Amino acid sequence: MELNELLEIGQKERSQAKPVQIRCCTAAGCLSSNSQAVKDNLDKAVKAAGLEDKVQVSGVGCMRLCCQGPLVQVDNQVQPEGTKLYEQVTPEEVPQIIAAVRGEPTNLREYDLNHPFFTYQKPIVLENSGKVDPERIQSYIAADGYQGLYQVLREMKPSQVIEAITKSGLRGRGGAGYPTGLKWATVAKSAGEKKFVICNADEGDPGAFMDRSVLESDPHRVLEGMAIAAYAIGATQGYIYVRAEYPIAIKRLQTAIQQAQRLGLLGSQVFESPFDFKVEIRIGAGAYVCGEETALMASIEGKRGVPHPRPPYPAESGLWGYPTLINNVETFANIAPIIRNGADWFASIGTEKSKGTKVFALAGKILNTGLIEVPMGTTLQQIVEEMGGGVPDGGIAKAIQTGGPSGGCIPASAFDTPVDYESLTALGSMMGSGGMIVMDESTNMVDVARFFMEFCMDESCGKCIPCRVGTVQLHQLLTKIREGKASMTDLQLLEELCDMVKNTSLCGLGQSAPNPVFSTLRYFREEYLALIR
């Protein structure tokens, strides 16, 4: 395929767009609230009203305001009202949406698109979410899809691609924040008969659903990012490691891979160039530890998913002993827009050391739960109180937990902190993959620490003793404290054991398991002491 053929597909798709676009969210959150029945009824109602020439109904990905699903957005070029977002739409309310299209009054619940929940966002990763049909490659191409891949294959050397990613300042969005360009450069320099690209979509943090939403909403964006990475490092084979608990994401990825192969955008001689790149899906069995890169590679190889000591690092000796690049879903989703818009554009967003935007799954005791993408440097106060609308029923936010089981709990007194890698680490938490759970005054912080320790205890692979035994003993101590049966000696033992588990565990699961305990002791020590007294 040549560029003019790609552009023709996009132009044809845009020219066929009808004056009224009705987009119904068909991501997992809204589907669980019966949005498929809403979509089916919309199709029938448009046909029954004889509006097929005027109205187009599409199933799209996540529209972000998950707490108000099912969501239906109407973009009307005929009526002066323009764009409307209807919330909690039931199948029975579909006739009212058709009435709204005709300009008639309705009783539909409409959400204000000028609310800070939307206006504070800067979509880069999510720019197509809720707009393109994730099951039609033509819809993605019409939104400039695969132009970045064409650009690198025809206009850039692999070293220039790596230079652009390095200059952009993009850091890995999987949690550690390692510079993406540096990782790519390391794999590119590594000698090997073959190289691999892996997309880590084994999203296992409680309360996190960022990667799932991206895969369900815009799968081609991730595939394009992987292909650009493969060209840059010299790989010909890619794997996407996805949780089995994400059936919709898996289905849409399979469809996207097949569609891209048919158009010559994946497979042999991509864009009629010498570049070959094939992508396969590997489905994980739900082990949290397989999010750790060495355990993930062992699982892809058909072995038990347990971590291995490093070095050697995957960049030098990864999958089957060959140099391997591993990035997560959100990292790959940033690649195509950086190529299209330039490294300077991306580097102009965010803070000095944390460039670009970050996607968060906002959940917990907060009014507006859902998916947000904000520039790095946005404060926790803006996210919780303005975008999230604060705690329901006039409650007061007590803390926010970031980074999943690996992260920590940040008190409300520190909500003026900007969200970036260094600031969150200084508070005893971390960026993580992007989970954010808000807690109110009714939350007992010892319970929070015990919950995450129980999670780590259950998910430990058992390979190393500090994690296998230490997490069990930590959970027992936290339970003893919570039940009011502990002494100050137990509290001292808890802190010593946390330090041991952190510094002697084999992989990131055990090394970070004590973090919620450390942070709650740091900011909410009085709650521990009150239970001991």
Automatic annotation (TrEMBL):
PROSITE patterns: COMPLEX1_51K_2
SUPFAM superfamilies the record matches: Nqo1 FMN-binding domain-like, Nqo1 middle domain-like, Nqo1C-terminal domain-like, Thioredoxin-like
InterPro entries: NADH-UbQ_OxRdtase_51kDa_CS, Nuo51_FMN-bd, Nuo51_FMN-bd_sf, Nuop51_4Fe4S-bd, Nuop51_4Fe4S-bd_sf, Thioredoxin-like_sf
Matches recorded under Gene3D superfamilies: 3.10.20.600, 6.10.250.1450, Glutaredoxin, NADH-ubiquinone oxidoreductase 51kDa subunit, NADH-ubiquinone oxidoreductase 51kDa subunit, iron-sulphur binding domain
GO MF entry, a single one: metal ion binding
Keyword Nucleotide-binding: no
Record flagged with keyword Iron-sulfur: yes
UniProt keywords, alphabetically: 4Fe-4S, Iron, Iron-sulfur, Metal-binding
Domain NADH-ubiquinone oxidoreductase 51kDa subunit iron-sulphur binding: start-end pairs: 446-491
Family designation: Belongs to the complex I 51 kDa subunit family.
NCBIfam families: PRK13596.1
Protein name (record): Respiratory-chain NADH dehydrogenase domain protein, 51 kDa subunit
